[in-house]
Amino acid sequence: MLATFKIGGVHPPENKLSAKEGIKVLPVPEQVIIPLSQHIGAPATPVVGKGETVKIGQLIAKAEGFVSANVHSSVSGKVVAVDNYIDASGFSKPSITIQVEGKEWEEDIIISSRLECNITYTKDEILKMIADAGIVGMGGATFPTKVKLSPPPGSKAEVLIINGVECEPYLTSDHRVMLEKAEEVIVGVQILMKVLGVNQAIIGIENNKKDAIEKLQAITEKKIGIIVMPLKVKYPQGGEKQLIKAAVGKSVPSGGLPIAVGAVVQNVGTALAVYEAVMKKKPLIERVVTITGKSVKNPGNYLCRIGTPISKLIEAAGGMPDDATKVIGGGPMMGRAMTNIEAPITKGTSGILIMSGKEGIRNEIKTCIRCSKCVSACPMGLEPYLLRTLSENGMLEECEKEKIMDCIECGSCSYTCPACLPLLDYIRLGKGKTGAMIRSRKK
Amino acid sequence: MNTILITVISLCAIGVVAAIILYFVAQKFKVEEDPRIDTVESLLPGANCGGCGYPGCRGFSETVVKSENMDGLLCPVGGAATMSAIATALGRNAAASTPKIAVVRCNGSCENRPHTNKYDGAASCAVVHSLYAGETGCSYGCLGCGDCVSVCKFDAIAMSTETGLPVVADENCVACGACVKACPKGIIELRNKGVRNMRIFVSCINKDKGGIARKACSAACIGCGKCFKECSFEAIKIENNLAYIDFTKCKMCRKCVAVCPTGAIHELNFPPRKQVVPTVETKEE
Q1: Shortest Cα distance from A320 to chain B (angstroms)?
Q2: Cis link prior to A258 (omega < 30° from 0)?
Q3: pTM metric for this prediction
Q4: From CA B168, how far away is CA B176, in angstroms rounded?
Q5: Percentage of residues of chain A with pLDDT beyond 90
Q6: A90 vs B122, B130, B133: nearest CB
Q7: Which of B120, B125, B215 would you mutate first to test chain A, the one with the most A CBs within 10 A?
């Protein structure tokens, strides 16, 4: 009997079309657009100006404050603009545009792919390297990793949990990373363990990725303290709190952080980025992105430079299908539909999903019949139908009482609703407003 | 007969006793309330719209009675007439107020602002705004789901089927500000109503650079500054590629309307301009 989280959850069709496709390198585009805010927190401040030449891996924007992340150039070339650029959601965001010329790397970066596994650095050195490399959570939440690795005073991490769950349907980037970069990921895990000062790491992988489980198990057999744990397939197991429950059986208290139960969760992609930052001195300038969809000609996994226009990735996969109705950044459950495919791939882009025909169109909204399917699907034990009504009517005090802030926005409620109600849309709206209300109260 | 008599007498006795108890209890727990609050409330429209910023008409009455003077207190629904009636009832001087009206600062009709994508989610501007920039290339403009219409208690704003934009009905709008709060894009502004409802305003809030704004919408303000140069009253300022007309300084000369290259400046309820007709001399035969 495989472990999983206890309450709620759904099991959408997996559709992992690109699971067998190896990671290919996407050609460097002619021009990259690198947004200054690819992470949660304050946008970075640009340190290069228009007309300057930059090298691959050069720092182009510096973290602003504690919760922020450095941004590096993913190509070598000339800065053509430090200006606003329209992102995937249609809003203009400050970005740096670089015209590619040559391929000159920053001197310190080790380009060879030889495996380095001798961790000689101290904890503080590693933390600094992670911060300098601008690493953020690669699972999609893009929370700066160095902040997550610095537990607040008084709390101590006991276990590191590595998130290799990839519970989102369609997406396979983490799966391929675990298969093809297994050794690197494990070194990354060891580095993370050293930083946190923990003796135990659990790599949680859903049981639909048996090859990755076997591969990692074979490598970790001789490594002390690292366990690979197969998990039952259930969405949203990749949620931090759900994964902790599944892996160590502890529940994070409402409103609390995972550190409250002594756990720190990091994505496998982040572990790989940490390995590259520490052992190869390479900042976060590229990531593996899945391009998939039922009518996409060649679904696959590509190693893309940050800032590559999404349209280039779609081209590489055989172009935009004729019957495409929606392009989604991320997976079908938590991803967001995009309005601009010229927008760049960022640190948090785990996949691009092209939905076609009817699949991409929302069903007609009917009325709630109080069947409470959403209540049984909610992995946080909330009442989505109620939260939706409260949010729609602007009853924020009640929303707070009903723990709207605990919502992880996994979309299980909207997925399961037989009346096709846009439950999550309203809950997300209410959550935003309630959060603002709580913050204004503290001031 | 006897039974009936006893019943009647005992019921009366219970009634009298209860009345006496109630009287003393009422005396004991009497809540002192300023009778003027009731007077003021009776003068108010009773719409409980919250446009004044207080919880309903009762809340507003309490604040008015408690306040020393009536500065900053205005019932937007009743306007100056109601406020002066209240002032008279309270023996104070009413502060002069200029009537205001809601103005929709977006002219992105389907014609001016072509759609670039199609939204099929919940029909609420607030939800759309929390998800993305909207169905058109302009990330500042009207989303067209009508959140402003659904909050209006006075039937003063409606979506035009022709342009897909909200239209304010001059005669119904009381400037309660509900639509201003409801609009997630901040398009609606309360501006002075003006003489005979005549208003001039920049019908755009797009802060993008001219080229980008123009690409998204042919009626966008591109921040060219022509109106700023034309205005002799310093009523126009240009910030973040966007012109704004200060309605307290504007003298309604309409010169800015004529020079605007994109037609972003709107005039409402003005008499038609005098056409300069070239005089043609007709020869009598």
Answers
A1: 16
A2: no
A3: 0.85
A4: 13
A5: 83
A6: B133
A7: B120
Residues of B in contact with A428 (CB under 8 A): 130
Contacts of B205 in chain A (CB under 8 A): none
3-state secondary structure of A246: helix
List B188's β-bridge partners, or say none: B104
Q: Residue B237: in which H helix or E strand, if any?
A: strand B236-239
First-to-last CA distance in chain B?
116
pLDDT tens for chain B, 285 residues: list them.
789 999 999 999 999 999 999 999 999 888 888 888 888 889 898 888 888 888 889 989 988 888 877 777 888 888 778 888 888 888 887 666 678 899 999 999 888 999 888 898 888 999 999 999 999 989 999 999 999 999 998 899 999 998 889 999 988 888 888 899 999 999 999 998 888 888 899 999 999 888 889 989 999 999 999 999 999 889 999 998 999 999 888 888 888 999 999 999 998 888 887 665 555 554 444
Any idea where the domains of chain A sit in the sequence?
1-27+107-358, 373-442
Contacts of B126 in chain A (CB under 8 A): 429
3-state secondary structure A172-185: CHHHHHHHHCHHHH
Between A65 and A163, whose confidence is greater? A163
**B130: chain A residues, CB-CB within 8 Å:** 425, 428-429, 432
| Residues B35-90, CATH architecture | Orthogonal Bundle (1.10)
- Rounded to whole angstroms, the Cα distance separating B61 from B37 reads 5
User: What residue ranges do the domains of chain B occupy?
Assistant: 35-90, 100-268
Assess A428–B contact: CB distance below 8 Å, yes or no.
Answer: yes
Q: What is the pLDDT of residues A391-424, one digit of tens each?
A: 999 899 999 999 999 999 999 999 999 999 999 9
- A/B interface, count of CB pairs below 8 Å: 47
Task: Count other Cβ atoms within 10 Å, centred on residue B275.
Answer: 6
Write B209-217 long-range contacts (CB < 8 A, 24+): B209/B241, B210/B241, B212/A86, B212/A92, B213/B138, B213/B241, B214/B262, B215/B137, B216/B113, B216/B136, B216/B137, B216/B138, B216/B141, B217/B107, B217/B108, B217/B112, B217/B113, B217/B136, B217/B137, B217/B138, B217/B141
Q: Count CB atoms within 10 A of the CB of residue B134.
A: 29
Q: Count Cβ atoms within 10 A of the Cβ of residue A49 and give its class: 0-12 exposed, 13-18 middle, 19 or more buried.
A: exposed
Minimum Cα–Cα distance from B123: chain A residue: A422
Residues A283-313: pLDDT tens digits?
A: 999 999 999 999 999 999 999 999 999 999 9
Amino acid, single-letter form, for residue A10: V
Q: Which CATH number fits domain A1-27+107-358: 3.40.50.2300, 3.30.930.10, 3.40.50.11540, 2.60.120.10?
A: 3.40.50.11540
Q: Are B55 and B61 in contact (CB under 8 A)?
A: no
Residue B50 with chain A: CB contacts under 8 Å? none
Q: Would you call A339 and B124 a contact, using CB atoms and an 8 Å cutoff?
A: no
| Pairing, β A351-356 against β A324-329 | antiparallel
Please tell me the class of the B100-268 domain: alpha beta
Distance CA B188, CA B147 (A): 12
Best of B115, B132, B205, B206 to disrupt the A interface (most A CBs within 10 Å) is: B132
Cα–Cα distance between A88 and A71 in angstroms, integer? 19
Phi, psi of B31, rounded to the nearest 5 degrees: -95, 120
Element (H, E) at B189: strand B188-192
